[in-house]
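re: that complex we talked abt at group meeting.

here r the seqs, copy pasted straight from the sheet so there may be weird spacing, ignore it
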Amino acid sequence: MTPNQPGQMPKMPIPGVKYLIAVGSGKGGVGKTTVSVNLAVGLASLGYKTGLMDADVYGPNVPLMMGINRTPMATGERIQPLEQFGVKIMSMGFLNPGDKPLVWRGPMLHSVIQQFLRGVDWGDLDYLIIDLPPGTGDVQLSLIQTAPISGSIVVTTPSDVSLEDARKAIFMFHQVKVPILGIVENMSFLNCPHCNERIDVFSHGGGRRTATEMQVHFLAELPLDPQVRIGGDTGKPIVLREGTAFIELAKNVVARTEEVSKEEGPKIEIGE
Amino acid sequence: MTPNQPGQMPKMPIPGVKYLIAVGSGKGGVGKTTVSVNLAVGLASLGYKTGLMDADVYGPNVPLMMGINRTPMATGERIQPLEQFGVKIMSMGFLNPGDKPLVWRGPMLHSVIQQFLRGVDWGDLDYLIIDLPPGTGDVQLSLIQTAPISGSIVVTTPSDVSLEDARKAIFMFHQVKVPILGIVENMSFLNCPHCNERIDVFSHGGGRRTATEMQVHFLAELPLDPQVRIGGDTGKPIVLREGTAFIELAKNVVARTEEVSKEEGPKIEIGE
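got the structure back, here u go
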């Protein structure tokens, strides 16, 4: 183990978890949780043992989108994740259901996220997907600095406003040396359900252009499909249907994760 | 002046500012900044002296949407706001332009927001619009607890996921006794530019339904119009054109603000 730099916390591995993937965005509302949920269910449907950790403690939308909300049980000191569509899930929404906002200061937030990461009985997983809170604030930074993240995904819409914030997220991951698997452009285009003509509601192509400019991979272009939103609102992720762009995204994420892990070279990890 | 409750900071008035309006949302990406920008420019075009404070320090999109980005000057110890489309503006985007994310902890954030509120030379204003950061975290709460806010606006899309978080924002304002002017449903519907048929991309009507359920006013239903996004991306707010729903929103906000101020009754304010 190399000595840590001053002020940097050690990135202890999470026993049993092979790859930890962080899904972030500079801006909220770009579909980060939609991507996380469909990616996790997609990976599970491809046969990978998958977990999904909802790190957005203020606005946890994973329970609604996965159609599950029960109180998790504890075994000894460890919390048992819930399971839906073959994915193990943990979310603040399970612990604070209803409409009351959670008003916590930074340090408490940090501690609950560490608890989710290391106090949950994830078991053996190929992939643990972390749905980060939107933005590039201190909570996001603390988390990606302390978790042994294999790779990160930055979700954006094609609008300039969203791309402006996506670039900040890419800088953040670069800064803390977390490999970037690539950019996902969500809400890329809409095919009118009436006339089937294409509508570029939030513009188009900016995700790919930004990926080229910033020399990161481009992972997927996902349509603005009302069915995606309906899948989220009803707790039935769209990836459960056949032939969606999300399953391609899952395959690209697998390929990029393996690529990035090889680049990183073999690791010798020494436990506590 | 009534004595403050323990732990509650005094809400000192901002000299020269008549009404302080906070625009919030439970979730990011619902169009909170689009609403703030168009509301501010709309109020100015109605003849009100208006300011716009961008309190989203991590993802400040106001400069891009208002088409202005220069470094503000200081006069003595006070910062001079920039002016565009008749609106006085202050944003962290002016001080930290470019793609580097701002990595600040809570207390620094709190201090810069107080600086924007009280260290900026706003002059005489009828309305100062505050574009809050998305969510219901501690930054939002600190701000609305310390600023003498006349009324708040909660922006949501019609999707259940967004409404889930909007309810949290309404609870937050209730909790700290900030009057709620009402809910705005953004991205309500899209008229296909090709066949003119209506598409309910993010569902429809949930904003009005939630307003009824939670006994708050419903202020406006704003279309998901690609022209609104183009206006934002090019720094030319759509309200500058004639006949948009945003000017109706501005008029409703004026009416509700006056209504709420009357309900509150006459105030005797004693300065320091």
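couple things i noticed - Confidence is low (pLDDT under 50) at residues 1-7 of chain B. The radius of gyration of chain B is 18 Å.
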